[in-house]
């Protein structure tokens, strides 16, 4: 924001006539802007900085009170008295509101006021053991575009038409009783993004929506997940264990571009007319109906969870996605650190079609094992349009000499792409799995 203000100020100065150049130092150019522009500037500032502008001068005294309010600071939104004071002092529209662990009466009061003032983004976080019911006023709010709900519950009677203009819905620890999920999908006419995380109801296994573009699912209560009819679905994100612990069937999603996470130990995965499955002896098989592999060809971004060393299963899986452009691999270092690697596995797959399209590869959990090295050699030697390989490693390997040695090693080896860049980064979080909403994947 500071950069934008600086550039904007310079632009205004350059536009001044030459006769006014001597008065530039005395003019407050920003304050001369119309209220509507200043309101937009205040909306981009953090809440505390925005509120503090009211003491600058008489010109700014009431601007903050009338500008759209973004109340989403995590620590501030835990303080009921402070939030009450803000609602009392501020008279303008509510752009964003986050509420954490308040009493039900307090939530009802704040939400009711926010709805009357055109709330666009709302996040409610309740208590898992004592979830409170969503205020009925929010269900029919026409201004609401984004809703995030944690440990809350919907009213017993849900109207057939709710959330008329909602675009993003994120539910965590919410009871999806009866046919609530299908009601949400059918009644929210503008819904674009749906995220379900640990929502309880073992009967929910089939999902359909003619409009949904992004769908995220994390649940351990179902044995089978069926994406029945989603003609506009572009992104399907599953948690690391869904494809391992339950059957996943994507029957109709012709526009699917991002798929993850696929556990390398999955049992059954159906994409359109293509059935991928593994036998107990880790024999990978693909049964595809004639002329029905279009869905596999549409996938451009793939995220894979590896709990073993890179082997033939990984390459056989990649072979099923001929137009892959971005690949994300999560490794569990403890189980992937093997000294014996069958190099013939890589030599047998030197002409796979996805190598003609693959541009970036990210490996989280790089441990410099022999398996890791063979993977790098394979990609460097056969990735014809490969531009970047990103390796996220733990602090254990935080050695500049080690990194430089690896870069030199792979820069002198025969490369299929002259533009290839090898990047090493320390995994600051150092966790054992990707987040379901990993920023690297969503930046695709």
TrEMBL record:
Listed InterPro entries: F-box-like_dom_sf, F-box_dom, F-box_dom-containing, FBD, LRR_dom_sf, LRR_FXL15/At3g58940/PEG3-like
Domain F-box stretches: 27-78
Highest taxon of source: Eukaryota
PROSITE patterns: FBOX (PS50181)
Pfam annotation, one family: F-box
Name under which the protein is recorded: F-box/RNI-like/FBD-like domains-containing protein
């Amino acid at each position: 924001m500071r950069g934008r203000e600086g550039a904007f100020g310079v632009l205004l100065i350059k536009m001044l006539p030459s006769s006014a150049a001597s008065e530039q130092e005395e003019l407050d150019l920003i304050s001369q802007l119309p209220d509507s522009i200043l309101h937009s500037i205040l909306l981009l500032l953090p809440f505390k900085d925005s509120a503090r502008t009211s003491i600058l001068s008489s010109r700014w005294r009431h601007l903050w009170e009338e500008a759209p309010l973004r109340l989403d600071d995590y620590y501030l939104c835990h303080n009921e008295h402070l939030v009450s004071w803000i609602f009392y002092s501020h008279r303008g529209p509510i752009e964003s509101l986050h509420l954490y662990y308040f009493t039900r009466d307090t939530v009802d009061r704040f939400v009711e006021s926010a709805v009357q003032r055109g709330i666009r983004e709302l996040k409610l976080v309740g208590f898992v053991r004592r979830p409170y019911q969503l205020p009925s006023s929010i269900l029919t709010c026409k201004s609401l575009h984004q809703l995030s709900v944690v440990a809350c519950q919907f009213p017993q009677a849900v109207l057939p038409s709710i959330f008329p203009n909602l675009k993003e819905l994120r539910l965590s620890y919410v009871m999806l009783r009866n046919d609530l999920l299908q009601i949400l999908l059918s009644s929210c006419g503008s819904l674009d993004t749906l995220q379900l995380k640990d929502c309880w109801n073992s009967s929910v296994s089939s999902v359909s929506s003619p409009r949904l573009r992004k769908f995220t699912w994390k649940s351990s209560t179902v044995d089978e997940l069926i994406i029945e009819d989603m003609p506009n679905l572009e992104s399907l994100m599953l948690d690391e264990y869904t494809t391992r612990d339950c059957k996943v069937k994507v029957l109709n999603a012709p526009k699917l571009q991002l798929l993850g996470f696929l556990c390398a130990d999955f049992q059954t995965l159906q994409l359109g007319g293509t059935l991928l499955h593994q036998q107990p002896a880790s024999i990978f098989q693909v049964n595809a109906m004639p002329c029905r592999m279009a869905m596999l060809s549409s996938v451009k971004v793939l995220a894979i969870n590896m709990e073993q060393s890179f082997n033939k299963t990984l390459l056989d899986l990649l072979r099923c996605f001929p137009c892959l452009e971005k690949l994300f691999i999560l490794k569990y270092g403890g189980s992937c650190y093997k000294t014996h690697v069958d190099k013939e596995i890589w030599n047998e797959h030197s002409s796979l079609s996805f190598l003609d399209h693959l541009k970036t590869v990210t490996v989280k959990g790089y441990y410099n094992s022999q398996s890791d090295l063979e993977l790098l050699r394979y990609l460097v030697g056969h990735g014809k349009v490969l531009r970047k390989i990103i390796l996220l490693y733990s602090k254990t390997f935080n050695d500049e000499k080690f990194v430089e040695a690896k870069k030199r090693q792979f820069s002198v080896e025969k490369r299929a792409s002259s533009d290839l860049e090898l990047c090493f980064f320390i995994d600051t979080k150092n966790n054992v799995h990707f987040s379901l909403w990993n920023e690297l994947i969503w930046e695709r």
